[in-house]
Design brief:
9 helices; two-stranded antiparallel ribbon; alpha/beta; seven-stranded mixed beta sheet; about 40% helix; Rossmann fold; single chain; binds S-adenosylmethionine
């Protein structure tokens, strides 16, 4: 494709997406941005296009055990409570459910539609035995999760879906689940400057996430850990690690 054609193609796609967002915003003037994310993903799934992270067509970007592997690296034991924050369709969470003792897994998300799609694909007998706890993120659910004193909280492929104006709410909510001795691992695509990757995804500099995390957890230890060794097009896969 020539440079001019490629530019025209990108501009047309951007305009189509912008028009879709504008139409949704006019129909939903007071809805939080998160509802737009759910609308866009469900629209794709209902059209039969499938989605790489949600529903029956979802596949892990790397290993299905990636979330579990990192939670274990940071000390997760079978009798701990762990949270998959922004669990989607449990694409990575199901390995964590399997590792933990019954009733020790919490999966939370901005909608129940995504984890209901995930549950449909899982063995009902195994689900009854493992009894994972699931809930939509709201003050009542967060209070229940907090009461179970999670030792590890993981949030994978979620931070990238949060616009800058909503980062305080996202990180603040994760920090609100922590108690002394707990650890939160927040996966994010890292770039030198905040960069839009697609209509619904952004990469962030670590300084931005550190500033937000410090605002909500001023006494926590905050560090960064590489998720993968590779850097592609100036983007690294990184973990923000918050320890209280
Ligand atoms: C790409 S999916 C990843 C799902 C799951 N973590 C995984 O890796 O399979 C992004 C998920 O983030 C959730 N999400 C988006 N914005 C969020 C927010 N502000 N707080 C919590 N979850 C959010 C979406 O609903 C969706 O389930």
């Amino acid at each position: 494709m020539g440079l001019h054609l490629a530019y025209e193609f990108t501009a047309k796609r951007w305009w189509r997406k912008f028009k879709r967002y504008l139409g949704w915003r006019l129909r939903n003037p007071f809805a939080p941005y998160e509802d737009y994310y759910v609308y866009s993903v469900m629209r794709k799934i209902r059209q039969g296009d499938g989605h790489p992270a949600i529903g029956s067509a979802s596949r892990p970007v790397r290993a299905q055990s990636e979330l579990l592997d990192f939670l274990q690296k940071y000390g997760l034991q079978p009798n701990d409570t762990a949270v998959d924050y922004g669990c989607g369709s449990l694409r990575l969470g199901s390995a964590v459910i399997d590792f933990l003792e019954p009733g020790k897994f919490w999966g939370v998300d901005i909608t129940d539609e995504f984890y209901k799609l995930g549950l449909e694909a899982l063995d009902p007998a195994w689900l009854r035995q493992k009894a994972p706890k699931l809930g939509v993120i709201n003050p009542e659910t967060l209070a229940k999760v907090r009461a179970d004193k999670p030792r590890l909280i993981g949030s994978w492929h979620v931070c990238s879906k949060v616009p800058e104006a909503r980062l305080d709410s996202y990180i603040g909510s994760i920090v609100s689940l922590m108690s002394p001795g707990s650890i939160a691992l927040v996966h994010f695509p890292e770039t030198a400057e905040r960069r839009q990757l697609s209509g619904l995804a952004w990469a962030s500099p670590r300084s931005l996430l550190e500033t937000v995390a410090r605002r909500h957890a001023p006494n926590a230890t905050i560090s960064f850990d590489p998720l993968t060794a590779t850097e592609i097009d100036g983007i690294r896969q990184t973990l923000l690690v918050i320890r209280t």
